[in-house]
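Need residues for this backbone.
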């Protein structure tokens, strides 16, 4: 069909849909109605491919991958779906012809935020990559009634509001009542001798109905549409539940656990973990048997991947189903389970490794607890003879009154991976070293990836179009082909065009900031960006100390040179993470101070954009000049904003941590700004206890002055918070070595500021980053999981014109 015909047809479908759904004309329709009407048209186009994909999977008996994740962070679907359907340009043209503000229409869609940060967004990037490389893979998670809280600042303090994302209904989901599963909690369980062996008898407890809502995951330029299945908790039909019993049940899918920090677990969280794990596994096995396969064929037909340890109860749940419901023996059930399940670790922070109190666990999931005791016993017996009692004890899932989920995941799966080379190495050498001794072949690395489609092709259309003019469109299907761009790094006209695109994106962000925050930022300045969850180890504080350093220099030293910068922060702090919230307050007060000081604010501005999420990321990332990735070395498993920012031409200011290392390697060290202690140095300090924040403070007058500014009234309105920051750095000896990396950070920033003044040389470095970003495509990441862990076919070239 000619493009014009497509546009004409789309227009008709859109106008018809508006009338059918809302009985309005285009002129009278609100943006929300326009969005919903257009989404309905798009959903229809997805539906046919979706039905065919499902039928095809069933008819061919293809092996299915199920990605179990307690978080998915899809953001908005409309633009991404249009892009993948090949209809984005036509829709834009249609909207222009209709004189409709398409951006406003897209912004009427709620940003679906059923995740905290990197882990959840990675899951959604994988949901985009799987169908795009024709991989048979589905998501399995929770349909939280409320997503991650919406963040606002009042007086510089974070306040949290509920994220009522279903207020206008979700256009994309389909409720599947006939697929509902019952999930059982609590009560007592006894083992009874029957002719078939020991069988559990349940007494009391709580039955919860898990109802799935499915959303089509649209492949890019192909006919594949996979399924993301999110479960919602309801009272089972026929059960008479009081109002309070009803709310206990519904709370299981009530809200996302808003914490990816080191906070203690809660009963509800455990219930959530079991909820989607049990519903998912029950449903998978039900279909497997209905399709005529034997349970022994499960590992050949199904791969269950657990995204961090939150779905680890999948392991004892599978054992329960195989043993109790189907009468298999322990060894055969264990073989089937471990060959089906694989596990990715996403954190090196000891306090973030999940552990549950055994008492709580046994109360909530009594049968699973028995099975974990049995897993524990088998493990000890098989390990102790060769490795000794102490080793067996150290690696046991049950120890010190707790259930150790990472141990259970490592024992009960056939593959364990980290998410960047350094992280995977540290897992082997430190965090999971004992398990590496036991089963070295289980371990591998799968470096994270991102979807260029959302973060580049859709969010930065002008950059993508400019690249097309140089190297054609093949790179959009094979992201590594973007290296061809390197041939143009001496093409001065092209470098100028790249700079123009960057400037337009900066202007777009500046307009947003002006409109939403009332601050006019300088688009000629360096846009220095740090966007990620607020956490001590990510060291937003180091960035802040750098800002204060520049500020004090400009105030007190007439000869100071500071390259003009706009410092851009966006971050949510876990509601219970008091220290992170104090840091937010301090950053906001420093921002106020700087932005309202005419003596400095032609040289520096600081903006903290509220309510960071996927949509805001799509706006900020194309506008970034500098990507701050400054975690303490050895703490950030991978990072993924680092990849998104490099793909959009930002240069990294980075520690040698996580995937920063690989990004610097890919782009070339001369095209990035590495600084700070490496992992070995950090570990040595921890081991030798020889780090003294006090000494650094005493011996560095510049730093001394900066830290004092937090407590001597220089920064206004932060009496308590400034003191808290000061105390954590000095009195508590700076757990994350902020002061240890300070000098190196400040020097590197100064060098970067100088370099930026040569626009052409800077743009050339920017180009080097863009051109090296292809290898960080999630398409390759997922393909590697498929080849080496899931053993399912895929086709990286499944995207045809
Ligand atoms: C107990 C609460 C909780 C919830 C989530 C603890 C820990 C988590 C996750 C494991 C935290 C997380 O999102 N990790 C991030 O995963 C990304 C994707 O692999 C990595 O890029 C980030 O480096 C890592 O911090």
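Answer:
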């Amino acid at each position: 069909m000619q493009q014009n015909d497509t546009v004409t047809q789309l227009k008709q479908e859109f106008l018809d849909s508006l009338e059918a759904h809302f009985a309005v004309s285009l002129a009278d329709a609100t943006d929300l109605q326009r969005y919903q009407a257009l989404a309905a048209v798009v959903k229809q186009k997805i539906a046919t491919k979706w039905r065919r994909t499902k039928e095809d999977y069933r008819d061919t008996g293809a092996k299915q991958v199920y990605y179990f994740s307690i978080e998915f962070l899809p953001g908005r679907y409309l633009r991404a779906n249009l892009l993948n359907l090949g209809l984005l340009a036509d829709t834009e043209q249609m909207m222009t012809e209709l004189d409709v503000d398409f951006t406003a229409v897209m912004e009427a869609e709620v940003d679906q935020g059923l995740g905290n940060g990197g882990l959840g967004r990675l899951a959604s990037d994988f949901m985009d990559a799987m169908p795009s490389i024709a991989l048979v893979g589905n998501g399995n998670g929770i349909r939280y009634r409320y997503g991650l809280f919406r963040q606002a600042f009042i007086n510089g303090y974070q306040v949290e509001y509920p994220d009522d994302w279903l207020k206008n209904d979700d256009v994309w989901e389909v409720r599947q009542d006939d697929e509902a599963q019952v999930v059982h909690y609590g009560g007592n369980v006894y083992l009874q001798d029957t002719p078939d062996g020991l069988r559990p008898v349940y007494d009391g407890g709580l039955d919860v109905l898990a109802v799935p809502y499915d959303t089509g995951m649209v492949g890019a330029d192909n006919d594949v549409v996979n399924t993301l299945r999110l479960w919602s908790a309801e009272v089972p039909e026929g059960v008479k539940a009081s109002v309070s019993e009803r709310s206990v049940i519904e709370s299981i899918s009530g809200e996302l656990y808003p914490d990816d920090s080191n906070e203690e677990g809660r009963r509800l969280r455990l219930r959530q973990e079991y909820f989607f794990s049990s519903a998912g596994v029950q449903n998978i096995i039900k279909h497997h048997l209905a399709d005529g396969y034997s349970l022994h064929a499960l590992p050949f037909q199904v791969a269950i991947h657990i995204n961090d340890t939150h779905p680890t109860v999948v392991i004892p749940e599978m054992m329960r189903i195989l043993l109790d419901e189907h009468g298999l023996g322990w060894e055969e059930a264990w073989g089937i389970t471990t060959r089906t399940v694989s596990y990715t670790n996403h954190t090196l922070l000891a306090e973030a490794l999940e552990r549950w109190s055994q008492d709580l666990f046994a109360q909530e999931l009594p049968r699973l607890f028995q099975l974990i005791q049995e897993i524990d016993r088998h493990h000890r017996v098989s390990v102790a003879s060769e490795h000794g009692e102490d080793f067996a004890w150290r690696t046991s899932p049950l120890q010190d009154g707790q259930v150790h989920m990472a141990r259970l995941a490592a024992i009960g799966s056939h593959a364990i991976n980290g998410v960047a080379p350094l992280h995977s190495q540290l897992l082997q050498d430190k965090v999971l070293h004992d398990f590496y001794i036991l089963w070295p072949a289980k371990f591998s690395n799968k470096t994270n990836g991102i979807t260029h489609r959302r973060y580049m092709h859709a969010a930065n259309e002008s950059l993508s179009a400019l690249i097309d003019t140089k190297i054609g469109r093949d790179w959009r299907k094979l992201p590594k082909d973007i290296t061809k761009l390197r041939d143009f790094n001496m093409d001065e006209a092209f470098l100028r065009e790249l700079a123009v695109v960057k400037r337009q994106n900066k202007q777009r962000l500046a307009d947003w900031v002006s409109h939403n925050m009332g601050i006019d930022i300088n688009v000629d300045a360096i846009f220095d960006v740090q966007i990620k969850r607020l956490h001590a180890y990510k060291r937003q504080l180091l960035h802040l100390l750098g800002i204060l350093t520049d500020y004090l220099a400009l105030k007190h030293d007439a000869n100071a040179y500071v390259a003009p910068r706009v410092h851009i922060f966006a971050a949510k702090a876990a509601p219970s993470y008091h220290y992170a919230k104090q840091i937010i307050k301090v950053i906001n007060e420093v921002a106020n101070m700087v932005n309202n000081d005419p003596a400095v604010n032609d040289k520096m501005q600081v903006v903290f954009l509220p309510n960071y999420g996927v949509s805001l990321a799509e706006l900020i990332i194309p506008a970034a000049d500098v990507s701050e990735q400054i975690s303490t070395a050895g703490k950030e498993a991978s990072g993924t904003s680092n990849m998104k920012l490099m793909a959009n031409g930002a240069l990294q200011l980075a520690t040698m941590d996580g995937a920063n290392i690989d990004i610097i390697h890919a782009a070339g060290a001369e095209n990035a700004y590495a600084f700070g202690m490496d992992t070995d140095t950090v570990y040595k300090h921890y081991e030798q206890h020889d780090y003294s924040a006090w000494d650094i403070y005493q011996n560095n007058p510049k730093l001394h002055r900066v830290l004092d500014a937090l407590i001597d009234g220089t920064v206004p309105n932060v009496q308590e918070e400034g003191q808290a920051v000061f105390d954590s750095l000095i009195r508590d000896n700076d757990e994350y070595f902020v002061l240890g990396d300070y000098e190196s950070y400040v020097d590197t920033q100064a060098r970067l500021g100088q370099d930026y003044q040569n626009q052409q040389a800077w743009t050339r470095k920017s180009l080097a980053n863009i051109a090296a970003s292809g290898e960080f495509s999630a398409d390759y990441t997922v393909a590697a999981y498929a080849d080496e862990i899931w053993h399912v076919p895929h086709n990286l070239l499944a995207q045809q014109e």
